[in-house]
Write a structure and sequence with these properties.
- By secondary structure, the protein is mainly α.
- The chain has one domain.
- Helix content is 72%, strand content 0%.
- Helix 3 packs across helix 4 and helix 4 runs antiparallel to helix 5.
């Protein structure tokens, strides 16, 4: 949706389409703008996958319980069963364990990030549907 929307927004810009130099310049700026947007998105996704991979790879429920029980967010430890099965993480448990590992600020950053991702997805889908 983002590439489709971005293409539609660029198409609506005022350029003299009879001059090849103007078209070439517009294409260059479109390439730079799209590359920056996609690169930022790529690195954010890379960091999320790397942090989750480091935090959850071969982690057991008991280990997750212990991490949360020994942190300032000890009230959240009860969401992890006390067994040695591999932890199955959903969005909620992922935010909780990040908060337990990296402090309460990480829990709130995760929540704001999820809210922002939902808003961005909603707006992009709506705008792309208009073009």
């Amino acid at each position: 949706h983002n590439i489709y929307l971005h293409s539609a927004l660029v198409k609506s810009r005022e350029i003299d389409r009879t001059r090849r130099a103007d078209i070439r310049e517009a294409n260059m700026y479109f390439l730079i703008e799209a590359a920056i947007a996609l690169s930022v998105s790529f690195f954010i996704n890379l960091f999320v996958v790397a942090v989750f991979g480091q935090a959850f790879y071969q982690q057991t429920n008991q280990a997750a319980f212990n991490v949360c029980a020994n942190s300032s967010l000890h009230d959240y430890a009860k969401i992890f069963p006390r067994n040695n099965l591999t932890v199955a993480v959903d969005i909620y448990q992922g935010g909780v364990i990040l908060g337990c590992l990296f402090g309460p600020a990480a829990l709130y950053i995760w929540a704001v990030g999820l809210l922002a991702a939902g808003q961005s997805s909603t707006m992009t889908g709506t705008y792309a549907g208009q073009f």
